[in-house]
Amino acid sequence: MSKSFLEVDGLSKVYPDGQGGDLTVFEDVRFALEKGEFVCIIGHSGCGKSTILNVLAGLDEASSGNVVMNGKEVKGPGLERGVVFQNYSLLPWKTSLNNIVFAVKARWPKWSKDKVREHSERYLKMVGLDHALNRKPSQLSGGMRQRVSIARAFATQPELLLLDEPFGALDALTRGVIQDELVKIWEETRQTVFMITHDVDEAILLSDRIFLMSNGPNARIAESVKVNLPHPRSRATIFQNPAHHKIRDYLVDFLVNRSGSAQPEEDGSPIVIDPSAGDAAPKPVPAKPDTKTETAARAVNA
């Protein structure tokens, strides 16, 4: 049986609830990513999206379950995985170019100085910042800083790129411009990307698939929605495709009406949905009985 590029099996995260018990943020999360896919994950605040991403990055540990990438279990951070956070995370004393050079030198320490610089400049040019090579982060707007972060992450050519709401702090106009640049750079590199977003339209523009999480606590990745829209995509024209409206309506319906009760397949894998093909929402699954409540009820009635 062929293995996927990334496989997540039975992932759960449990914290102390401060009252002597436990709080299960998410449980039995199972999914796979294929090489070169762009996958977004959407869910309401508190369902554990960022924690899942941090586990994939090796920055956090799951309470149970495992993550396997290219046949090796993920344990701790590594250069084969790149992360872009919402808060830019640039080195303030280095220029735009040198922020990227620093990462590229760490990735390929045997490269010559000229090769490192050429490679770094190429990725800054991809995000439209070849005119700002020598500016420090304090001399850049918020949108420009995030472009440097994105360029740095792509420049190290990680096998898996993890984006944690990278445009969340940007205004709508800047956000749209950087979305277009992200589409362009991904079309050129075809790196595997896993991205958190709260923006339905952003997810449709960027993704091959969209994971939908149920509400926490005890959140699950309930559904995997196919985005059958041709590449390359453009914000200016994507809405003209009838499939766009079907996908968008499906996502909004999930978030508004079904995220509180949605469940995955019996084996824990997300239910695969293709709204553009007319797939309807799965029928609600009856909630599993609370064993503790049932036991208490029996004791009272005995």
Automatic annotation (TrEMBL):
PROSITE patterns xrefs: ABC_TRANSPORTER_1 (PS00211), ABC_TRANSPORTER_2 (PS50893)
The protein's name in its UniProt record: Nitrate/sulfonate/bicarbonate ABC transporter ATP-binding protein
Organism listed in the record: Marinobacter halophilus
Keyword Disulfide bond attached: no
InterPro entries the record matches: AAA+_ATPase, ABC_transporter-like_ATP-bd, ABC_transporter-like_CS, ABC_transporter_ATP-bind, NO3_transporter_ATP-bd-like, P-loop_NTPase
Keyword Transit peptide: no
Family according to the record: Belongs to the ABC transporter superfamily.
Region (Disordered): 261-302
GO terms under cellular component: plasma membrane
Domain ABC transporter residues, every copy: 6-240
One of the record's GO molecular function terms: ATP hydrolysis activity
